[in-house]
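Question (not urgent): is this output format expected?
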Amino acid sequence: MERRWFWKLKLSSLGFMLCLILMIDACNASIHEYRNEAFKPQSNAFFFHGGSEGLYASKVVDSSSDSHVKGKSFIRFESVTFVRTKESASKQNEMQQSTGMVEAIILEVKDRTRIGASFLKSDVICCTRNLSEDGQCTAGEVVIRKNPDNPNWPRRIKTSFNGKDEEAKMESETIEIKSSGMYYLYFMFCNPELKGTLIKGRTDWRNPDGYLPGKMAPLMTFYGLMSLAYLVLGLAWFLRFVQYWKDIIQLHYHITAVIALGMCEMAVWYFEYVNFNSTGTRPMGITLWAVTFSSVKKTLCRLLLLVVSMGFGVVKPTLGGITPKVFLLGGVYFMASEALELVENLGNINDFSGKAKLFLVLPVAFLDSCFILWIFSSLSKTLEKLQMRRNMAKLELYRKFTNSLAVSVLLSVAWIGFELYFNATDPLSELWQIAWVIPAFWTLLAYALLAVICVLWAPSSNPTRYAYSEETGDDFDEESIALTSGTLKVSGDTAAMREFNNGLAEDLEEDKRE
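Got this back:
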């Protein structure tokens, strides 16, 4: 019955993943591709968001036009083409050189108020005739107030349609980044006759050390260090495992599986980031493996915490009739987590829909809440059972585990509050240089909890201190049996046997209820 549940969940999970992958376009990340995408109206202008990334300043000063020089940071325009409608092109004079203009505007986020006429107490973006007559701007162009400290920024690149041509190709140009910041790229036009114009082509964004976006670059080093941390933990666990292999219980195999998945997850993420950094693209195969390892490890970590809290292998040998419910919760969590990770890592980095993300975040948050409630509810029952049976060794073990889990929950709640505050106060990613610590915290917390479990349930020469004892039903503490001249006291033996029978009846009744 349990195997049937498992295979049903596995097949449904695979089908769900395949459907989701087919629905998502591959992410090109630092190479932003535009595939006949439309401009949106805003005030008296039309705009298209071409990308946004945190970029560090170039490490080398090189006047050459070679953008492949190591240490240079840049934004490069590659084959960017604007396509207007046939109706718009037919209205133009064939002999006229410029019959419509599109502007590419690159700005640092701190200069966002310099785009448009807000400094003139007007909400228009494009220069009007009245503003032009006052000498504030040029009619038909986007109003840009130059930065007095850096007169070349915000940067404007113009591209014009000729005569009745339907296409206008932008000249290949590389814009070097000389100061660190969050940069935005917008394509805009002011002529209403160009309504319906589409954009195609691509732009390449590069940091001094590679193509990784600025907010993701520190994660490559972090995942490399975490791979080493999991390797150290795995090596220590393996040595202990081999040393006491005769006293291994089933729970130890579960812990081993989680450690192995953690090592694979961190290693795959590291190599995925290395590949991303060197090529500027994220191959779906590597990213899919990384996402799947991450989702499987998250699911198994939560299931491990749950079954440990239920006393599996310590208070009772099996989970009884509740096993299908545990598998069901784990399967549903895996699918929800996989969906969120796939869309976040295979979707477009800067154009990801907030509503779509919220739609996928809510189920994961709800299932995490279910895990937390179930874990602490099970812990409460396990502690109560151990206290009633006066099994002091295991009671102390579970108290330490409960305290560790409580601390992790408090840290999680505090960090969620910080994350909400961080996102609410920084909607434009101005604090992009420290954004990497948010996902890094959850990875560190999961590692810390796993390390705590490894220490508490480490293999030893005395497995009875936490293993389920079949002979005694695990209903009384071995240390509490009084021995006098090598013979058990009759009263103590009678009490222990009565407690043993009561414990067995209690376990059977609990399994029936579950």
